[in-house]
Specification:
Layout lengths: L6 E2 L3 E2 L18 E4 L23 H6 L10 E4 L18 E2 L2 E3 L5 E4 L6 E4 L6 E5 L5 E3 L1 E3 L7 E5 L14 E3 L2 E2 L5 E5 L6 E3 L2 E3 L4 E4 L11 E3 L2 E3 L4 E4 L7 E3 L2 E3 L17 E2 L7 E3 L2 E2 L10 H4 L7 E3 L1 E3 L2 E3 L5
Parallel strand pairs: 3-4, 4-7, 5-8, 6-9, 7-10, 8-11, 9-12, 10-13, 11-14, 12-15, 13-16, 14-17, 15-18, 16-19, 17-20, 18-21, 19-22, 20-23, 21-24, 22-25, 23-26, 25-27
Antiparallel strand pairs: 1-2, 28-29
Length: 323
């Protein structure tokens, strides 16, 4: 079902890239689905979710209704709620998205439509990821992920291993907030050509962007224009990752910024140990140029053949790779 009323000649479907009449058209049989658990008539029965007046109650039901529809240009719009820890949001709509979903339809876009911090999303249970991606070409845009009282994680781009039938290549995550009760904000496993942009990682209890060194690295990632604020264990722990472009990110580490005597903060910034061919440039670090504990070299680690170019420290620009 295609809702022609949402199409505008120049801007496409609600301004979503790739839907413009003058660019790529959404496929003729694309479906636009709606999720809003706060709507009193929301239901997961049938295909009512194509009607914004009768939305799905859960994101997983919306995804499941698209089984077998890889690359049909389908979009899931998720409505706003008032679950932010500090108030605000939509009055009287108190129910957040609270589920752990699996994306297994390639080419799917999941869009939060709260114009503020994002649509608030908690995992279904403590320690789980809000979204596990097992499909290619997924876009996740416009959510504020929270771990909840028991702690939880944001997005996991999963690879099933040799002979698998799924990868999470070409994943795009943009305009998302990962709150301070989130443990791992984004975990990547064997992802190629991913893009993470304009996201905020606020005091995550473990990692901002994480690649498990016991698993596999990622290749050809673009990580740009993000803000990392006091992420506890590591802002970008990208060991064994290759050919990434990492630029225009802001990384604040309170230990590195403790003057006049910074504290040890080993690999709590950007860690590319074991990787090669990465370019890291025009990033801002709350540390001093190399001198000792808590400096540029302590906060970061370069891969074997990386190029770290003109990164900005508190007392000048670093023009060499961290060691």
């Amino acid at each position: 079902m295609f809702n022609a009323g949402l199409v505008q000649p120049d801007r496409g479907v609600l301004g979503i890239g790739g839907t413009s009449i003058q660019g790529k058209l959404i496929q003729a049989d694309s479906r636009i689905l709606y999720v809003q658990p706060n709507n009193i008539v929301a239901t997961d029965r049938g295909n009512y979710g194509m009607d914004p007046q009768i939305p799905f109650a859960t994101v997983q039901a919306a995804i499941d209704s698209l089984a077998g529809r890889d690359y049909h240009g389908d979009v899931i719009f998720v409505g706003a709620n008032d679950a932010w820890a500090y108030g605000g949001g939509v009055p009287s709509w108190f129910t957040p998205i609270q589920e752990s979903v699996t994306v297994d339809v390639s080419g799917l876009r999941i869009i939060g439509i709260n114009p503020g911090l994002g649509v608030y999303w908690l995992p279904g249970a403590a320690g789980q990821f809000c979204i596990t991606v097992q499909a290619m070409d997924t876009i996740i845009d416009g959510f504020a992920f929270m771990g909840g009282a028991g702690g939880g994680n944001g997005i996991y781009a999963e690879w099933a291993g040799g002979g698998s039938i799924w990868w999470a290549d070409n994943l795009i995550v943009r305009n998302c907030l990962f709150h301070d009760d989130v443990d791992i904000a984004i975990q990547l496993e064997f992802v190629w050509h991913g893009l993470i942009e304009q996201c905020r990682f606020i005091q995550n209890d473990a990692y901002g962007i994480y690649v498990d060194p016991a698993g596999s690295g990622v290749s050809w990632m673009t990580i740009r224009d993000n803000m990392f604020d006091r992420v506890v264990t590591g802002a970008m722990a990208l060991q064994n990752s290759d050919y990434a472009q990492i630029y225009r990110n802001s990384i604040y580490n309170a230990k590195a910024a403790t003057l006049p005597a910074p504290l040890a903060c080993t690999n709590e910034g950007v860690n590319l140990l074991g990787g090669l061919g990465n370019q890291v440039y025009d990033n801002y670090f709350s540390c001093l140029l190399p001198f000792g504990v808590g400096d540029y070299n302590d906060l970061n680690t370069a891969g074997a053949s990386d190029a770290w170019i003109n990164n900005h420290c508190m007392n000048g620009d670093a023009t060499s790779n961290p060691t």
